[in-house]
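Preliminary data (for renewal application), beta-D-glucopyranose complex.
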Amino acid sequence: MTPIPLTFTDKLQEFNDCSESHKSAIDEITKEFEINTDKLKKISEHFRNEMNKGLEKHGQTVAMVPSYVTGIPTGKEVGTFLALDLGGTNLRMCQVNLEGDGKVSVRQQKYKVSDSLKNGEARHLFDYLADCVDKFLSEFNISSSAEDKLKLGFTFSFPVDQTAINKGSLIYWTKGYTAPGAVGKDVVFMLQDSLNRKVVPVEVTALVNDTVGTLLAHAYKHSNTLLGVILGTGTNGAYFEKISNIKKLKSFSSNADHMVINIEWGAFDNERKVLPLTMFDNKLDRKSNNPRKQALEKFISGMYLGEIARNVLLNLIDRTLLFDGFSSKDLNNQYYFETEYMSTIEADDTNTLEKTKRILEESLNLPSTTLTDRQIVKRVCQLVGLRAARLSAAALSAVISQCNVPESGCNIGIDGSLFLFYPSFKERIKRALKECLGPNADKIELDLAPDGSGVGAALAAMLSA
Ligand code: BGC
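Predicted structure:
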């Protein structure tokens, strides 16, 4: 097959045996998913403008939520706090012991959040959270009393309109949650109310986003941390902004210079001005439970990548260019082509793509596949995965340009399943960052910051005390 004249920096899967019509369909799709350097820079520029709009006024697309966390951890903080983390795949309850010297020990337990809790009445969800706190205290023998309540930092990883360190109302749900009865309500009040009714002696003293938690936890260990980022089921970032730049923060007085801002970048470009929307993205959005919301998140995050790839595969099936025009019941199901499969397929370096074959034929029950089919599937995964990493870099480069990167460089703390498990995600981001920022990108370390949100919530509970 003739090489495709594109500017991709990654080596893409090639095909040893395919027809002209295959070739032109694949070329066309490849072109649609390409984001060249100029486009990347344009997206990054627009992102920066949107950030500044969000700093100026309330209610903007990129919400730029003030976190009311003004202290930067010094690493010397000590104390024991509880943290409850809702918003990733699991619910996590932690007891965090800050030991000073950047050292920390954590005892934690994960709990499942069923689909019926995610989508049923919100008060059942908050009651369940209170039950998990209660269970955790008894399982780990942690004592507390009504007079001397334990302090808890609540990591709530959805867009909130935050008005104090311990106050914030939900703007809308994301990541597959729809529970009615929470939008517009103060989520700290809801959790505290459930804890009080169940007589659990715990006081919710801080509300933080997972990105804010990740930033604080990473800064506790690495003083030159600039940004906390989540690349997982959802995506978002938080950074330290000069308080004088947060124009919309009118009645806030503090001696501090900086405040952590939760960008809520998942909503970037809901207006569809710059993101390279394909018919596959539009189909995903149209069928999602939050159409025209979280535009950037739908290009980047683990919740959606598999579904975009599935939409491309179905299109090729319908044109009888894949699997001889056959699908399977599983592949026809929305969200059944999991992002995790893409990780395995992208990492499949066997000559005959055996791991890919297993996924397609055993997990998705396709009757049979040819090597060309599997090569096409791998190419599709690469296109979707690569575009996600490059768009993540566009967002990162905009935030980096907004901050002053010290001569000595800086760290970005990143958590989430994509960053942890998706092959080459980090390297792809690094390459795209270099395209956007030039040699300055070499001064920026992308660090894995695992499980930071629990520690971060504890730090916020402490900094707020
Ligand atoms: C939410 C953010 C969160 C991100 C990562 C998004 O869907 O809106 O608040 O930080 O997911 O969990």
